[in-house]
Amino acid sequence: MKTKKELKEAYKQMEFPIGVFQIENKINNKVLIDCSMDMQSKWNRHKMELRFGNHRNRILQNDWNIHGEEHFVFKVLAELKNEEKDTFNYNKELKTLQAMVVEEFEIKNLY
């Protein structure tokens, strides 16, 4: 069995998907565009907030309450490669990438 220290070190070495994603309402085609250094964890956070009825986007929450979880899908729109550089500003790059994705896909039906 691994020690706590070994488990922490193994966690630090893990790479998580970095990028831009959308949560799409399949009923009205509205989307929430978001970005994260760990997209899967961020998606899980959005789902938990929606399930508990306390998502910060009240319009999205209302649609979730009306249509149900089964009518929402998570989709990765763009990913950044892990550069492993301490000087690389992922947050700035993610925000730029998010804006580019919205413009490129001509997404107009946003939450």
TrEMBL record:
InterPro entries xrefs: GIY-YIG_endonuc_sf
Protein name per Swiss-Prot or TrEMBL: GIY-YIG nuclease family protein
Taxonomic lineage of the native organism: Bacteria, Pseudomonadati, Bacteroidota, Flavobacteriia, Flavobacteriales
